[in-house]
Amino acid sequence: MAGVRKDGFTPRIRAVKAVVVDVGWVNGLAAIRSLGRAGIPVFAADHRSSPLGFRSRYAQPVTVPDPLTDEDAFVDAVAHIGGPAVVFPTHDPPLNALARHGCLADRVAPNACRIVYPRAWTAREAQLELRFFVRAWQANHPGVQAVLSR
């Protein structure tokens, strides 16, 4: 159950677990802290032996295979973490691996997990669009300046 904030507000969140994937950097740690402070049990999943997120008091560390070297084993390991859970990939390699495999529920049981990511083609298009935007911004393209000034 979610925790009570200092102002007395208690969000209505059903009992759920979270799996934050690729927790070697601050964005993974930030996700762990936010979820943990809300009272949500968090599993920190990473292929490295001692990533930053494994040190959080809010997370239970879980070592999984590297999505770049053994994608199928990585997806299978994530699907079996913690029972029913919402999965939050924090970087492109695990996001792409999970997106390519669609719903992981087929690997475990119905409603075993929910993945917070778009389908594979949408994820790839968003990544390409962001790269294009960054390149245009670096080149001082006038269209980018117009978008940013709105």
Describe the protein's topology.
Blueprint: E1 17-21, H1 26-37, E2 42-46, E3 59-63, H2 71-79, E4 85-89, H3 92-100, E5 113-115, H4 120-138, H5 142-148
Parallel strand pairs: 1-2, 1-4, 2-3, 4-5
Structural features, described:
This protein has 150 residues and is of the alpha/beta class. It has a domain at 17-117: Rossmann fold (3-Layer(aba) Sandwich), CATH 3.40.50. It is 37% helix and 15% strand. It is built from 5 helices and 5 strands, in the order βαββαβαβαα. It has helices at 26-37, 71-79, 92-100, 120-138, 142-148, and strands at residues 17-21, 42-46, 59-63, 85-89, 113-115. A 5-stranded parallel β-sheet has the order 3-2-1-4-5. β4 (85-89), α3 (92-100) and β5 (113-115) form a beta-alpha-beta unit. It is globular, with a radius of gyration of 17 Å. The termini are far apart. The mean pLDDT is 77.
In CATH terms, what is the fold-level topology of one domain? Rossmann fold
Biggest β-sheet strands, sense, barrel: 5 strands, parallel
- Helix content bin: 25-40%
Mean pLDDT: 77
Q: In percent, how much strand structure appears in the residues?
A: 15-25%
Q: What's the alpha carbon Rg, rounded to whole Å? A: 17 Å
CATH class of one domain: Alpha Beta
> How do the strands of the widest beta sheet line up side by side?
3-2-1-4-5
Quick one: overall form? globular
Question: What is the N-to-C succession of helices and strands?
Answer: EHEEHEHEHH
**CATH-scheme architecture of one domain:** 3-Layer(aba) Sandwich
- Unreliable stretches, pLDDT < 50, 5 or more residues? none
Number of strands: 5
Q: Which structural class do you get from the secondary structure elements?
A: alpha/beta
